[in-house]
Amino acid sequence: MTKGEETRRLTRLRLVPRLLRTSAFRYTLIYTTFFVLSVVGIGYFVYESTIGQTMERLDEELFRELNHLARVNASAGSDGLVGLNRVNNEVNRLKIVQDNALYLVVYGGPPIRILSTDFINPPREVLNAGPEMFEFDYDARAVVDGVVVTESRPAVGRVATFRYGTPDGKEVRAIILAARDIRDIDQIRQDARNTILRLGSVTLFLGLVLGSIYSGAFLRRVDAIGRTVRAIRDGDLSRRVALTGSDDEFDTLSTNINGMLDQIERLMTGMRQVSDNIAHDLRSPLTRIKARLETAMGDPQADKDEVIERTTMDVERLLATFNALLSITRIESGEGGGSKVPVDVAAVAEEMLELYEPAADEAGFALHGHVERVPDVLGNRELISQLIANLLDNALKYGRRPTETHPAIELTVVPRPSGGVLLSVMDNGPGVSEGDRERILQRFVRLERSRSTSGNGLGLSLVAAIARRHNAQLTIGRGLPHDPDARGLVPPTAYGLGVRIAFPPAPEKPKPSKPASHGALSEAKA
Ligand SMILES: Nc1ncnc2c1ncn2[C@@H]1O[C@H](COP(=O)(O)OP(=O)(O)OP(=O)(O)O)[C@@H](O)[C@H]1O
Ligand SMILES: [Mg+2]
């Protein structure tokens, strides 16, 4: 045996106990047991309604015949032997027409006197037989290949017992046995039993074979999935479960597993990108700090206070980056932000408008609010405030074109026709070209022209994470037109940036929302 054959044989051997443990095999075993029981049950029913009935008819026949013989016996009055002689004669008459009939008439005893018999040896069962029909074997002469032999044959019989008083005051017993040879019936009966047994065995065998084939197929599919999962666990993230194309439940499961693996791979790639970005983004401030400190150490004339101040600023930036990253990670893992409660987005928006009014004023922005009554959304109030704050921050930071004399920001909160709430923050600044709109949601992405302003490129990532956390749809698109009088007619580039977040309706019946106050800041812009 070659090494390959040997391992295959061992694998097969190991497969057997595993086959027996599969749920497919256990189910087959249960089905098989039911099938075998049904086959045996049906067999028993057929047996009872054929052989059983024949035996019952025989019983009835013997009962009536014994009654008849008892009447013949009684016709002689109290003289036992005369009566029994009449019975003998009657029995001889009956035997002429019934060739399977057997009789025995005995008197007295012990020792008994046999008055007439069809048996070589009177069957022992007769002496202590009850009133029911009973089965017994008797010896009979037969010719086999020209030789006379004695063989045992099956029979059924019933007995009638009579008692007589003798002149000396004793009691004597007489027994009449009426019996039938049941060789033929017995043969059929044995054949029927064997057939039922064979049917049961074949059903059991087929059930087990089918069960093994079925479980084997089952195991092979499960093993294929297991092998892929193990390969992935061992580091080969590119592996996928092969589909058979049969579109069965295993294919569905495999498709789902493959989808999950795709998602994991995407996340892993994302993570790698993020760590690369972090390394890249933190390296420059850290290098800067190191260089500055080294220069300061080597130069006794250096302005230590300034070094400390600038280093502190750098460290603060680093800390801010770390904190933003941590928040995003916590929100995305579902850990940050606590549990979801009904939040009135309109109220949150009003608050943020109030909070940002001084900053907007100072920067020369017109901050408008258009806040309507909206149904509550299910979420976290702090996270929604954070989301609005990040968007307003960006609008104030990037929403001004050098030529613009009336920079404007508009915060809108309106109910969606399909339920839920639409929140948007728009400005009339330079906007973001279509090609960059997806990109700016990624961590650490800052557009070239924004390099001069401070920031980590994490604000919109946090907005996206908060939106995802609320199952809200985030779209980055056009904002306010550069020329407010030319709405609809201006080229697509003549708009600022608009960020829209569509919150889904809360699953429960939304409770009546509080009336939104329409203060000076929240006046709708026409
Ligand atoms: N309203 C806007 N108008 C024009 N460009 C924008 C606007 N908002 C964001 N951007 C661009 O998208 C980039 C990413 O924004 P994001 O808020 O994620 O980071 P950031 O503002 O640069 O830094 P941080 O928010 O972490 O302080 C910005 O650097 C800017 O280039
Ligand atoms: Mg920002």
CATH fold topology of the domain at 338-503: Heat Shock Protein 90
Overall morphology:
rod-shaped
Cα separation of the termini: 90 Å
**What's the mean pLDDT score?**
86
Please state the CA-atom Rg, rounded to the nearest Å. 51 Å
- The percent range for strand residues is 15-25%
Region (Disordered): 502-526
Keywords: Kinase, Membrane, Phosphoprotein, Transferase, Transmembrane, Transmembrane helix, Two-component regulatory system
Subcellular location: Membrane
EC number: 2.7.13.3
List keywords for this structure.
about 525 residues; alpha+beta; Helix Hairpins; Heat Shock Protein 90; 10 helices; binds adenosine-5'-triphosphate; binds magnesium ion; two-component regulatory system; EC 2.7.13.3; HAMP_dom; phosphoprotein; phosphorelay sensor kinase activity
Give a brief rundown of this model.
The protein is of the alpha+beta class.
List the helices and strands and how they pair.
Blueprint: H1 3-21, H2 23-74, H3 80-97, E1 101-107, E2 113-117, E3 134-144, E4 147-165, E5 171-181, H4 183-233, H5 249-298, H6 304-332, E6 341-343, H7 345-363, E7 366-371, E8 377-379, H8 381-398, E9 408-415, E10 421-427, H9 434-437, H10 459-469, E11 473-481, E12 495-503
Parallel strand pairs: 7-9
Antiparallel strand pairs: 1-2, 1-5, 3-4, 4-5, 6-8, 9-10, 10-12, 11-12
Bound molecules: adenosine-5'-triphosphate (ATP) and magnesium ion.
Keywords: Kinase, Membrane, Phosphoprotein, Transferase, Transmembrane, Transmembrane helix, Two-component regulatory system
InterPro entries: HAMP_dom, HATPase_C_sf, HATPase_dom, His_kinase_dom, HisK_dim/P_dom, HisK_dim/P_sf, Sig_transdc_His_kin-like_C, TCS_sensor_his_kinase
EC number: 2.7.13.3
